[in-house]
Amino acid sequence: MRLSLFIFMLxxxxxxxxxxxxxxxxxxxxxxxxxxxARLQAAGVRNPVVDVRFFDIxxxxxxxxxxxxxxxxxxxxGLAPLRLQPGADRIHVLASLKAELKENMLxxxxxxxxxxxxxxxxxxxxxxxxxxxxxxDGLRSAxxxxxxxxxxxxxxxxxxxxxxxxxxxxxxxxxHINAKDDAIVLSGLLPxxxxxxxxxxxxxxxxxxxVVDPSALKASPHVLPAAFAKKGLLANFVxxxxxxxxxxxxxxxxxxxxxxxxxATRQMESQWLGLLRPVTGAAKVDARFTLLPSVYHxxxxxxxxxxxxxxxxxxxxxxxxxxxxxxxxxxxxxxxAQTKLASLAPALLAAGPALGLIxxxxxxxxxxxxxxxxxxxxxxxxVLSFLVDQGVPSADISAMAFDPVASGSPSAxxxxxxxxxxxx
Length: 424
Prior knowledge:
By secondary structure, the protein is of the alpha/beta class.
C-alpha cells in the first residue's frame, strides 16, 4: 500500500508542477510583464519591448544615455522571480548631439560610440564658426552607444545628426565697406565666396592707389541667404558708389536696409540710388549724403595740376574767397566783376596753360533746375570769355554749371548767382 502511494505521488508530482507553472504563467506573468514595462519606462527607456518565457525575460528598447540604460537593467533584474539572462539585455543607447550657444561660447553635449568622431565634429564646428569658443567636455562616448540607422560616417555639414547644431550656428549675412584715403576695408559675412570675390574685384577697379582689404569679410554657405546678396547687381552698385572720393561707407544687414554715408553731388546721389534699387528693391534707404556742388568741392580732393606745389598753394589762397556775383536772371558781367577778374588775370597768365582751371557757376536751388542750369553755363562761359580776352590761355579751362545746393547747407555757395574758380 505504501509503495503504491509512493509511486502515485511520483506520477502526480510532475503533473502538479506543470499545472502550477501553467497557473502561474496564466495569472502572474502578464502582471510581471506589465511591471517590467513600467520599470523600463520609469528609467527613461523609449519603445520598450518585454519578452517573458516562463521565468526568463528579454528586454529591448532605447535608453537616452548609458546611465539610464544601467538603471533600467537593474530595475528589471530586481523583478523576482524573473531572470535576465546574459545577452537578453538588448537595450541600446542611440548616439545624440545637443548644443547650447551663449554669446560667443558653444557647448556641445551628448553621447557617441567609441571612436574618432568627436574630434571630427570639433574640427567641423571650428571650421564653420572660428569666432566661437568651443566646449566639448559634455560630449562623451561609451560601448553601449550605437549610431542611428542610416547614419553615414564621417559626419559632415549635411548629416541629419548635426542639423540642430548647425541650424543654431547659422548667422545672418551682413556687409560693411569703408573707404578712406589709403584703403578700402571690407568686413561682414556673405553666403557665397563667388560674391565676395566679385566685390573685391569691383573695388579693385576703382581703388586707384588705395589698398583693398577683404581680410575681415568672411564667406560661407553656413551664412543665411540674404536678399541683398545678388551677384552682378551688388558688385555693379559697389563699383559705381566707391568710385567717388573718400571718405565713403556702405553698410547693410539681414534687415535689408542699406546705410550710406558719403559726400555727393545731386547727380551722383541719383546715380547711386538707381544702382542700389535692383539690389535692395523697395527697402528704405538710410542715405546720409553731404550734398556738394561738384566733385571738386569734395574733402581731400587732390588737384591734377603739374605746377609746383608753392604756386598751387599761392593760387588757392587767391581763389579761396574769389567769387563773381551776377544779377538775378542775368549772365552779363557787371563792371565790378570785370575789374575783379582783370586783377586776377596776371596770376593766371603767369601760371600758364599747365594750371588747369574749372570755372563753375552755382544755380539758384529755388528756381527751375533746367533754366538755372542753362543760366549757370552762360555765366561760366561769360567769365571764360573775359579771361581769354585778357590773354589767359583756354587750353585747359572748363566752364560748367555746378549742381544746386540748398541755402543754409554747409556747402552752399556765398550767393546762388555766383561763379567761382577752382584749380583742377
